[in-house]
Amino acid sequence: MSRYQNILVVIDAQQDDQPALRRAVYLNQRIGGKIKAYLPVYDFSYEMTTLLSPDERTSMRQGVISQRTEWIRQQAHAYIEAGVEIEIKVVWHNRPYEAIIHEVLQNNHDLVLKMAHQHDRLEAVIFTPTDWHLLRKCPCPVWMVKDQPWPQGGKALVAVNLASEEPHHNALNQKLIQETSVLAEMVNHTEVHLVGAYPITPINIAIELPDFDPSVYNDAIRGQHLVAMKALRQKFGIGEEFTHVAKGLPEEVIPDLASHLDAGVVVLGTIGRTGLSAAFLGNTAEQVIDHLRCDLLAIKPDDFVSPVTLPAQDE
C-alpha cells in the first residue's frame, strides 16, 4: 500500500479551472486511492442578517453550501463520468486553513493539494495566507499546484540539508528522498534529483583574519557537502549525475536549479518544532518557497505535531 491514498483537494472558489483537482486525478490514475474535493465557505453578510431568525440564517447557510456543492460537482463532472470516485464536501467555516486541517485530522488524509496562484509578470508563485498556514501547520504533506501545465518530462527536485549534524535533519533528508522516490517510480518513472547548497565565505571573517584563505575554506565546505551528498545518493541508489551541490544561498540555488532542470515539483522538508515555534517553517524554507516557479511538495518530519487541534466536540 503506497502513500497518498486519501487525498484532500482544496477547491479554489474564485475560478472554474481547478489545477489541484486535475493533479489529484492524475495521481489517482497512477497510484489509486480516493479523492475528496473540499471547500470551506463563509460569508460575513449572512451572519449580519440580524432581522432573520436563527433557523432562517441556518437555512441560508445551507443554501450556500448546497449551491457550492453543485458547482463543484459540475467542475468534477468529466472526471466522475470517466469513473474517478470523487467525494464532495462543503463546510461553513470562517478560517479556511483550520477547516482544512480539521478535515485532515478527522479523516486521516495523507496529502493535501491546493492551487497556488502565479504572478504573470514575474512567473513566481504567489501564496495566500491560507497557503502559508497550511505549509506551516498541516500535519500531512502539502502539495501546492502551479496553475499551468506540468512540464514535459518534468522532474522532481528534492532539497536536502547537507550542513547540519543534527539527527533530525538526517532523518528528514532520508524521508524526503524515500517518499519522493516511491512516488516518482509510480508516476511515470519521474527522474529524481537531489540538491544541496553550501554557503559562500563570510566576508567579515576574510577581512578580520589576514591569514584566512577563502579558497581553502570554500574547498573544505564544498568537500564536506559532497561527502554528505555521496552518502545520501548511495544509500538510495541515485546516480551521481542526478545530484547537485552548488555554492550560494538555498533560496537562490534551489529555484535556479529547478528552472534549469524544468522541474515539475520541488520537494522540501519543513522542520517541526514544539511549543510556540511549532507554527514556523524556518527562515530558509520560507525564502526558498518564496522564489519557486513550479509546484511545491512540503513534507514534515515524523515527529511533527500540528498546533491546530480538533474542537472538543469533534474529538
UniProtKB/TrEMBL annotation:
Name assigned to this protein: Universal stress protein E
Family annotation (SUPFAM superfamilies): Adenine nucleotide alpha hydrolases-like (SSF52402)
Record keywords, A-Z: Cytoplasm
The protein's role, per its UniProt record: Required for resistance to DNA-damaging agents.
Subcellular localization: Cytoplasm
Recorded superkingdom: Bacteria
Gene3D superfamilies named among the record's database cross-references: 3.40.50.12370
Family of the protein in this entry: Belongs to the universal stress protein A family.
UniProt cross-references to Pfam families, sorted A to Z: Usp
Residues in UspA domain copies: 4-146, 182-300
Gene that encodes it: uspE
